[in-house]
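Hey team,

Filing this mostly as a record. A colleague (T.K.) asked me to run one chain through the structure pipeline before their review meeting, and I want the input and output archived in the tracker in case anyone asks later how it was produced. No errors, nothing strange. Just documentation.

Input sequence:
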Amino acid sequence: MGYDLDNSTIIVSFRGTIDLINWIADFDFFKEKYIRPGCESCFVHQGFFYTYDHYLRENMMSYIQVLTSIYP
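Output structure:
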């Protein structure tokens, strides 16, 4: 994650698949309902969402808060 000064944008990027655990998550490609306000008919890739929710979300949200405090 980082900040693009030219476009005044916070960038969130994910690296590609690099190991067996990533491949297993990739193959869990079924869609599940993504329930959030304003997103009534949204779905998300199960494997990606599980990885995000269990391993990435907490640190990502903390860092996004830091970035938004520096670059409102």
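Quick notes for T.K.: The chain has one domain: 2-70. DSSP finds two helices and four strands in the chain.
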